[in-house]
From TrEMBL:
The organism's taxonomic lineage, starting at the top: Bacteria, Pseudomonadati, Pseudomonadota, Gammaproteobacteria, Pseudomonadales
Record family assignment: Belongs to the UbiC family.
Protein name as catalogued: Probable chorismate pyruvate-lyase
Catalytic activity: chorismate = 4-hydroxybenzoate + pyruvate
Superkingdom: Bacteria
The gene coding this protein: ubiC
Organism name: Marinobacter litoralis
Signal peptide: none
Cross-referenced HAMAP family: UbiC
Matches recorded under Pfam families: Chor_lyase (PF04345)
Protein localization: Cytoplasm
GO molecular function: chorismate lyase activity
């Protein structure tokens, strides 16, 4: 998989994550889901749009890496694709006002890349959400809540994900929330 030579803070990476089918189920394990991140765990429409609304100056998508790679076994199961089958995997930082707010990982099975789906290979710094929410072909499934097991200090603790269905195929968007998004900022 192609990694961009991107100047990312150490540890600003995606940790192992346990996924729950509902916020309530995750909340039984970790009540933090009901804290300041709650709003972001529940945003239903385009996450990109919601982040853009919060920005004072700029919103940016920085591609960390993208290319064909094997999803994890758990991801393959969730997407009902054969284990070890390569998919197009895209990892980005969503930045507001120059600060990383979200790390996003999207798994796009080869079946989604046929026909009009081919353009998913060439998104670059254009947000995926703009494409998914502008096309009636894509229908979002229910949101899941993720509890991360951070191994490094900067790693996210809470996440959300959902499948987007297009006919018989589906891709999966996972969004890992960084504290800079939801913790109250203290003025210097
Ligand atoms: C799915 C959306 O797209 C956003 C954009 C992404 C990208 O460009 O890779 C990844 C995750 C999302 O938060 C959305 O806006 O809801």
């Amino acid at each position: 998989m192609l990694s961009k030579d991107f100047d990312t803070a150490p540890g600003l990476t995606i940790p192992p994550t346990h996924w729950y089918r509902s916020l309530a189920a995750a909340g039984l394990q970790n009540p933090d889901v009901h804290g300041p991140a709650l709003h972001w765990l529940q945003v239903e429409g385009s996450f990109t749009k919601a982040l853009q609304k919060k920005c004072r100056s700029s919103f940016q998508v920085n591609v960390i890496r993208e290319g064909f790679a094997e999803p994890s076994d758990e991801e393959a199961r969730r997407l009902s694709i054969p284990r070890r089958q390569k998919a197009w995997i895209r990892e980005v930082q969503l930045c507001g006002d120059g600060q990383p707010w979200v790390l996003a990982r999207t798994i796009i099975p080869v079946s989604c890349l046929e026909g009009r789906g081919r353009r998913l290979l060439n998104l670059g710094n254009k947000p995926l959400g703009a494409y998914l929410f502008s096309s009636p072909d894509w229908v979002r499934g229910p949101l899941e809540t993720g509890l991360c097991q951070p191994e490094l200090p900067n790693q996210p603790q809470l996440a959300r994900r959902s499948l987007f269905h297009c006919g018989q195929t589906a891709l999966m968007v996972c969004e890992f929330l960084l504290p800079a998004l939801y913790q109250p900022q203290h003025p210097l």
